[in-house]
Amino acid sequence: MKYVVLLCDGMADLPREDIGGTPMSVAHKPNMDKLAAVSRVGLVKTVSDELKPGSDVANLSVLGYDPAIYYSGRSPLEAGSIGIDMKPTDVSLRTNLVTLSDEPDYEDKTMVDYCADDISTAEGAQLIDYIQQHLGNEQFSFYSGVSYRHCLIWANGTLDIGKLTPPHDITGKPIKDHLGANENGKVLIDMMKKSYDLLKDHPVNLDRIKRGLRPANSIWFWGEGVRRELTPFADKYGLSAAMISAVDLLKGIGKFTGMQVINVEGATGYIDTDFDAKAEAAVKALRDGRDFVYIHVEAPDECGHRFEVQNKIKSIELIDEKILGRILKEFEGEEIRILVCPDHPTPLELRTHTNAPVPFMIYDSTEKREGVKCFCEQSAKDTGDFVPRGHELMGQFLKK
Q1: Is the distance from CB of 97 to CB of 119 less than 8 angstroms?
Q2: pTM confidence score
Q3: Of the candidates 324, 234, 293, which has an alpha carbon nearest to the alpha carbon of residue 2?
Q4: How buried is residue 227: exposed, middle or buried, by Cβ count under 10 Å (0-12/13-18/19+)?
Q5: 122-179 pLDDT tens trace
Q6: How far apart are CA 295 and CA 292, in angstroms?
Q7: d(CA 257, CA 196)
Q8: Domain range spanning residue 176?
Q9: Structural domain tally of the chain?
Q10: Does residue 153 fall inside a structural domain?
């Protein structure tokens, strides 16, 4: 038996009048709907109401790791993917390159774009290297990651820093109400302010402005945490596993759980990602002897954050055609089990994550059951099948 998890990040949504439903319900996804007719379909609560609905908590949950036990912050997982060997006394923080408005006082600025027009990895590396030259020291070290996603390591740091808000939660909003760090965290706010003066006239940003792109004119800290060990997936479930994702967070989870982390050329974390290459990487991993592959696709989530309604629909259709379709064709007639689900909702109207339950589908080629006609939020709810603790779904999927 081969096992595939197709994790469609942020795919779940709320009904919209302009499209006559949710992106999941209106998308043309013949492969998902065909499987849903003979599969177990229901809702799963991946993030408890006591936790923030981040992709870190949600994906740990889907993978079968109880966040109440294993979660210690988002950034340490990303730091692991970048290759940073964190010490027990280190605190890591996600460092976004963002676009802020140009009011003279930092506190009066607005969060224009949490990802600076999805800045390229090469451009981001130049800016983070520049920040390291001017703000880095023995206590604070900056490391470049992918696109707008980077990392700060605070040697002998503290988690008692007050509230740091994810920038995608405040798109289009003034930042003054989200600079709530306490006395310990003021050093971080100070670096954010200094970064604006350093970056606003940097050659990379001046060139981006000329090309009609938003400048990455500030850093923004959030997602603080310390390193915590994760039980290897093979020890937990007795299966050799591979992780396929474009983003450091999932690569970090894969690394810390002992999975083979597969880097796919052309995987971007957005709708322009190479869906075909991700599918081929998954097929190869399974044919090369892996029992389990986790395919994480970020595109629906990014479209939700950006309020790109049609692109969110299109991203679901591309996942269905190019990834799920390829998997089904390759393993036709063979024993395979497939779990399709989002990690959390990213409603277009809200442009951020919520804790609401998400639809899931478990297909088993050796078992046929009565399912639903359309794999979407409402049909999943209508089945009455509900998994209240998300980290228990993986065991049910694997029948462990």
Answers
A1: yes
A2: 0.81
A3: 293
A4: buried
A5: 999 999 999 999 999 999 999 999 899 999 999 999 999 998 999 999 999 999 999 9
A6: 10
A7: 37
A8: 81-225
A9: 2
A10: yes
